[in-house]
Amino acid sequence: MFSSLDANPQDKLIERRQLNDGNWMPTACFGTYTEDLNQMHRVRQSVIDAIEAGYRCIDTAFGYLTEDGRRGDG
Question: How far is CA 74 from the centre of its chain?
Fold first, then answer.
């Protein structure tokens, strides 16, 4: 079974797990950690490339310093 958010038929190829609340989450997420904060333009492009490749889960975290709008631009 797949999430109702699946707009792209290719998304159905992505393995998902059902959460306790009934929602579905992809089992593979794209990570955005970088040690070089001067390379954020590469993180942005990587997020764009990941979405185009079919990722629907983008892993950001306050500790990664990748939660601000620069990743959201992707």
Answer: 10
Q: For residue 54, which of 22, 9, 2 has the smallest C-alpha distance?
A: 9
Q: Which two tokens stand for residue 5?
A: 């958010």
> Is the pTM for the entire model greater than 0.85?
no
Mean pLDDT by 10 residues, the chain (74 residues): 45 77 86 82 89 84 64 55
C-alpha span between 56 and 63 (Å, rounded): 21
Nearest alpha-carbon partner for 71 in 32, 38, 36: 32
Whole-angstrom distance, CA of residue 4 vs CA of residue 57: 15
Q: Please choose, from the candidates 47, 66, 54, the residue with its C-alpha nearest in 3D space to the C-alpha of residue 2.
A: 54
| Residue 58: both structure tokens together | 């983008």
